[in-house]
């Protein structure tokens, strides 16, 4: 028996970069968290600690900041591609780069009256985080681009049923024709390739997720998940596959009978754990092979 | 030397109640986290485990749910007052109640097209949490009401300076005429008394906090804090005191010189720890004694 | 109506300092999180942004690191006192210092065989965090010293009852003669004054907390809390007051009857929220006035 | 273009079960968090909300509790296997089960004196969490079993170097011959098959991880990772592959020169973000195909 090295990667995780662009007195803000993972000729560093093939993670961090200055951060997918290509193309020992970016959203503070402070004052907005993961694998091959979001919390206060399920010896759940359906949407979608408009694509995909969640009379969270994935694919021709992970955030109807009260779906206990967890992929039948896109 | 019991309280913390109100097909949603703390004749339970004076925390939880059904949850301050008075007024052994409520915000999902799904579909919105702490101390005395918010993250990308400070032997910081100023606003304000419009009051106070943050050319975070507190007091006659705790979320200008790049306040590293922490109270000169309001 | 400044303080929070002491090849490790809060002549900085009285929080951070080098970190209380006195005594505009330190524990890695690696290899141990809060208020007055711990999670699998409580119209809880009692102990105790042996004192207080938790047949968590506080005071003559906050981490006996199974206190569901929360102070009848010790 | 369903699974996540076993007056405690994921004939539920093939996640939760009563929880791997086989073998529509278990450790409270309280009093110990992930894919195939741990935080205060790395135009890091090396070990190892002694295996693997971390004079964290993986494989013939993810928790030597102080590797700033992240697999050259073990 011999010990061998399997798949490996290394990099600098969670470089928190804020980029401000000044357009006269009007400022624009981009708030990102960038994680780089590189792989390549890493046998020697693992086996004997020879770092000759290793670009320090500290240099990766510096590159993130320097590129933010040189190129700005327009769409996070573009910034991730720029970084991924740089590492692979500039270092002979680095054969593959994975770059993940999270983006946090800010709104302008709209002040009343005739002030210009709104030009450089911002308030963190929304709860969801926009994400992307880009892989680049050598100069000749095509990069893969996965965009997504996490932390989009949604709730339907009616329009959700659950019945007709298997009842085994451990089943005590009763069928219901009206329940609260709530989830945190964690979604990641694969682009067919590079394109010009990741910002619009994001808005369109997010819109499709919300529309399908709200617009589906749900017989199960799986059905809702599939409808959401399908609607994204229909709305976005540039996307060929989507992965969704959605916890069923249980809202239990509280039994108020002991207190002489009915509860016509009005008062709920929002539970923490355990929770259902529904995960699924939806794709187009012509989706190209994903390769390493989801790693 | 004898051992004696000092101040004490007990209760059920973090009852997560969601209240849905149906207005025909249009639903309204209130999402709260309620924590009750009671005190009174609790000598025996501490000393010998005699529970005769103890209303179980489980009953407190039940009361939260039952009251949500019976009375609804309009403004969280009113719901907290209702609960606090109930516990003190209905139980001879309970002399004081503290009720804290957090409220989480939801927006309606606005779907495109002629659908009515927006009537009962919601998405968690914003990042701040509305809060209140109410104290009630026996039937004859006035309750105290503190409202507030936490998690309101704001940033000015210019309009902030810091110089003229003490320079001791451990000072290496250089004065600056232009920096990023960012903080998470944690604020709590004391009402002069009960009134009819806690919802409007909240919006007005929040607006004043944002306006003052954006509208203050800052020479120090303390100055900004004081301006924010003052603006709330000026905008809201019903409020007599405000406490603010604001971390200085450092955004360090990255030194890009080693890479042959300048950095005219464009690229920042958003640091985690350590951070400055500025805390202060601002009040009106006619504010009545706070009593136990801030406990 | 005029707006006035109330109590305020500012400082650098959460400076993460690790101090290694080399005793020949044997290393010693101290891992701390230091938060400084200063107050004094801070009217001008709040009102007009004049920083002449402000020692920058950056300088405070530097002082923490420099003092760790110059004086080492023996007991956290001593290190906190050293810092608190330095800020007040060296700066005329600073009249009061509050220094809080958290300490994280590490064990040596005991390797098998005749290696000396254990001399400088460590593994984070335990789950509780040792804490202290020190106040110093000018050169003439005595400092106050509060030590404590948080995150000490304990559980008795029997020896706990709960019955004889108030039953109001919202009570559905049934009395029990045997339940699981579990809590996270958060404790802070006030020393009568400075002394020579904070390390031994900590161990003795911690031991008393555990002994009393394990040794008390409990009729309520309040009774257990009071016994724990009392045992600390009895074991530690140097301590005159203790504050305890202990969540009742509910472990519900699962109803297995629907599956034809009994459950003689063997299978429990460990719930998250809501939870009981019991808070109380225990002190000696000769405890001196606490002053600002608990702020 | 048509939309198709890709890989999917669903189940109940994070069922928190505590199992107490009474051996006369001596109690034994097992504290686990169980997450079940099932897959199978799930086309209809996704496409039209037909739940006929769906065993409710609520029933899965009930099964966890009932099995804890019927079979006890000896080693988490065995309990996971029992559950995984039950779901697949009892439900024709369920073809594959993934069961993940986390175990939290408790020590007995050892009280002084002649008390028997230690028999049923426990304190949460250690910081690491033992984990397992089991897959079962129909009655005929072999299950896969991955065990592991997370949250094992270790630090070497010397015996670590980093030099000889690539220096590109964004490199400012200086080579070092002595640094602090600290990480949180997250490890998962694949067993060759079922065996009789998962408890001993866990202890042996954990021991090998600690020994190798402490016993490796490190030229890079990658070298340490590989040594740790190799030592587990050498110590544990029952294990054929191990995956390690180890953040480089940077401890920066603080520059104290501005204060007239040297810093011979004594005072460090423990940084939060960014951090290096080193991930790698180590396996034996005869390791059987992993199949779905790592999903």
Automatic annotation (TrEMBL), chains A, B, C, D:
Reaction it catalyzes: urate + O2 + H2O = 5-hydroxyisourate + H2O2
Q: Which InterPro entries match?
A: Uricase (IPR002042)
SUPFAM superfamilies membership: Tetrahydrobiopterin biosynthesis enzymes-like
Q: Which Pfam families match?
A: Uricase
Q: In which pathway does it act?
A: Purine metabolism; urate degradation; (S)-allantoin from urate: step 1/3
Which keywords label this protein?
Oxidoreductase, Purine metabolism
Source superkingdom: Bacteria
Q: Its Enzyme Commission number?
A: 1.7.3.3
Q: Which family does it belong to?
A: Belongs to the uricase family.
**NCBIfam families cross-referenced by the UniProt entry:** urate_oxi
What is the role of this chain?
Catalyzes the oxidation of uric acid to 5-hydroxyisourate, which is further processed to form (S)-allantoin.
Protein name per its UniProtKB record = Uricase
């Amino acid at each position: 028996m011999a010990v061998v090295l399997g798949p490996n990667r290394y990099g600098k995780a969670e470089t928190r970069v804020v980029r401000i662009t000044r357009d006269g007195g009007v400022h624009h803000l981009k708030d990102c968290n960038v994680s780089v993972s590189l792989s390549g000729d890493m046998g020697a560093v693992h086996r004997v600690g020879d770092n000759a093939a290793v670009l320090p993670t500290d240099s990766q961090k510096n590159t993130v900041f320097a590129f933010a200055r040189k190129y700005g951060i327009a769409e996070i997918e573009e910034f991730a591609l720029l970084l991924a290509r740089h590492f692979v193309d500039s270092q002979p020992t680095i054969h593959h780069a994975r770059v993940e970016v999270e983006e946090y959203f800010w709104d302008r503070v709209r002040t009343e009256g005739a002030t210009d402070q709104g030009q450089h004052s911002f308030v963190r907005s929304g709860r969801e985080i926009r994400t992307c993961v880009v892989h680049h694998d050598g100069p000749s091959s095509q990069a893969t681009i996965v965009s997504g979001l996490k932390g989009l919390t949604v709730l339907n206060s009616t329009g959700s049923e659950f019945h007709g399920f298997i009842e085994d010896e451990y089943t005590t759940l009763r069928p219901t024709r009206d329940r609260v359906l709530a989830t945190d949407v964690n979604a990641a979608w694969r682009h067919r390739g590079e394109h010009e408009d990741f910002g619009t694509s994001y808005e369109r995909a997010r819109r499709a997720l919300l529309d399908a969640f709200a617009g589906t009379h749900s017989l199960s969270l799986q059905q809702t998940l599939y409808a959401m994935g399908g609607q994204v694919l229909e709305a976005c021709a540039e996307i060929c596959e989507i992965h969704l992970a959605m916890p069923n955030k249980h809202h239990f109807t509280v039994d108020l009978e002991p207190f002489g009260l009915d509860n016509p779906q009005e008062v709920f206990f929002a539970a923490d754990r355990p929770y259902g967890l529904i995960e699924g992929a939806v794709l187009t039948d012509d989706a190209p092979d994903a390769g390493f896109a989801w790693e």
